[in-house]
Amino acid sequence: MNDRWKPLTRADPSGGSRLAQFPPQPQRAQNSRGGSQHPVYSRHSNGLEQFFGQIGSEPGLRILDLSGASQANIAFITNLGHKLYSEDLLQSLDQAFGDGDFFANQSAPARVEEFLEQSLNFPDDHFDGVLAWDVLEYLAPVLLKATVERLSRVLKPRSCLLAMFHAEERAESIPAYYYRICDGSTLLLTLRQVRRPAQFFNNRAVEKLFQSFESVKFFLTRDALREVIVKR
């Protein structure tokens, strides 16, 4: 297995005229010298709470985090006795398709297959849960379909995937975040960059996207992010 995909047991040391609303409750992250970094937004997450409630308490489960490795997520998940696999899928998207038209490049079958083999190359039924966060919003239809199919394959039957989708239909640009787990029902979101989404996802579009899964559940939120739990 590629070293990037070894389970993590301790911490490993980016426009449009309309912008989606940021979540409320901003705080300021401090760097080691006391300087101010990007704002950090704390939000209660019913989706996260249900995700961990559904995967069960049996130790040794495999969880895939698509927001990249972070001290907070590694510590929380490994303290539960599980194994965490991390991939910064948004960064991988930019590296694989950023040379030219980002979304058009995602429609080339050969490039799609290469991306999946490099970024999501796991055995079938390998994971007990996937934290997809908001990355699916930046995948063009061809790549999106193939990626969801791949995630379905690598998830065990009746396992869960947690995803986030912005609710503002007219937003031409949306904030992409780093997602850090504070506790079993609280997330800390740090602005990563503002990006153009590949498409808008209303509830019907989300249900169609995951139509091969057993169930899709939406959670009401007070901000512009919708939380979705899908069961394989």
Task: Give a structural overview.
Helix content is about 30%, strand content about 30%. It has one domain: Rossmann fold (3-Layer(aba) Sandwich). The protein contains seven helices and ten strands. It is globular. By secondary structure, the chain is an alpha/beta fold. It starts with about 25 loop residues before the first strand and ends with a strand. Mean pLDDT is about 85; it is low at about 1-5, about 10-20 and about 25-35. α6 links the parallel β5 and β6 (about 155-165). α5 runs parallel beside α6. The strands form two sheets. The protein has a six-stranded mixed sheet with strand order 4-3-5-6-10-9, with helices on both faces. It has helices at about 45-55, 70-80, 90-95, 100-105, 110-120, 140-155, 205-210; strands at about 25-30, 35-45, 60-65, 85, 125-135, 155-165, 175-185, 185-195, 215-220, 225-230.
Strand proportion, as a percent range, falls in: 25-35%
CATH class: Alpha Beta
* Class by SSE composition: alpha/beta
Helix content: 25-40%
- Tell me the number of helical segments per DSSP (H or I, 4 or more residues long): 7
Q: Mind describing the biggest β-sheet?
A: 6 strands, mixed
Averaged pLDDT: 86
CATH topology call:
Rossmann fold
- Overall 3D form: globular
Q: Which regions have little confidence, pLDDT < 50, spanning 5+ residues?
A: 1-6, 8-22, 24-36
H/E element string?
A: EEHEHEHHHEHEEEHEE
How many discrete domains?
1
CATH architecture: 3-Layer(aba) Sandwich
